Amino acid sequence: MNHPHLASTEAAVMAIRELAREHTLELTVTDDIGADQTSRRTSAGAFAVLDPDGSLPHEAFIELEGSPAVTVRLYPEGDAKITVDGVDFDDIPRDSVPAFLRSVYGGLAYVKGRIFPPGQWLMVPLPGDETYKELILRNTLSPWLARNVRS
Fold first, then answer.
1. Cα gap 80→61, rounded to integer Å
2. Phi, psi of 34 (to 5 degrees)
3. pTM to 2 decimals?
4. Region at 13 (left for phi over 0; alpha for psi -120 to 50; beta for the rest)
5. Residue 41 scores a pLDDT above 80
6. Residue-wise over 78-105: b if at least 16 C-beta within 10 A, else e?
7. How confident is the model over 50-90, as pLDDT tens digits?
8. Sequence-distant (≥ 6) Cβ neighbours of residue 18 within 8 angstroms
9. Residue 7 banded pLDDT, cuts 50, 70, 90
């Protein structure tokens, strides 16, 4: 499914703020602006604020309070890393971030386990038959993850 296009990091931050308001969640946003500040621009020279193409990269780190513990790092390249109760989802398209969070806070995300090969995965279904899944590397589940186990 095509999600609404979020043209910039700031547009994605605004969408996440709106979602936090809907679910009465507190959030903290940390902005890193400039090539010398963003995490993927480690090769940028000292005081090199602009990218070679003249653009000003903007990265944001968002912490959402409550259960589950969720953090979102929005990258200037148009993707994001979302961590849900210690489970990392890398390379989520920026346009999919609001739908991903709606799924988590709307009760659609769940934990699926298998006996062989052993393992548990956090499954986050999005509208349009799109599902993200990541292996849970811990031996014990957090209370939120344990509440959302499905067989």
1. 10
2. 115, 145
3. 0.86
4. alpha
5. no
6. ebbbbbbbebebeebebbbbbbbbebbb
7. 555 556 677 899 999 989 999 999 998 889 999 999 999 99
8. none
9. confident
